[in-house]
Amino acid sequence: RSYIHRRAVSGTMATVHEHAPHSASNSHSYEQYAPRSPAQRSRLARIGVLTNPYSDVSAKAQPTAKLNESTSSLANLFQHHCDSLDEDEVVQINQYAGHLREMLIQGARMTERIDESLQMSENIRSRHDALVQHSGEISANCERLTQEVDVLTKHAEDIGAPLKNYDAVDRAGTKVGVLFKVLPNENGKGKDRIVTVRGLAKLKVDDEDEYISVLNELDEACVYFSENTRDMDGTFGKEYGRRALILHDAALYLLKEAVVDRLRQTTADVISALNLDKKTCILSADKLDASLVYTRFHGISSRSRSLISILQNRIYLNNMDESYRELLSLCQTTYCSCRESLLKSTVASHIESLRKEHGIVTMTRLASAFLERLCSVETALYRDFFGATNGKKVITKNIAGKKKNISVLSDDELQKLLKSLCAILHRSVRRGLVQLADLDTLCQVVNVLREERSSIVSSKSYNVATSHTMSGVIEDAQERLIYCAQSTLQKEVMKFKPSAGELDYPKKLICASEKKGTADPVQAQMMVYETWYPPLKSVLRVLSKIFKVVDQKVFEDIALRSVQACAKCLRDAASHLLAKRGSLDSDLFLVKHLLILREQLSPFDIELRAVEKQLDFSEAGKAVTKFLANRNRHLFTMSNENALVMMLREGVSVQEEAIDSKRDLEDALRVACNDFIEHSSTRVAKDIFVWIESCKLAASKDSGSLGRQKIMSGNYVKKLMIDTKENIVKESGELKKQMILYLDNPATQGILLKPVLLKVSKSLDDVKRLITVDENNGWTSSIENEVDSLLQDMHGILNT
Question: Rounded to 5 degrees, what angle do the CA atoms 14, 20, 26 make?
Answer without folding.
Answer: 165
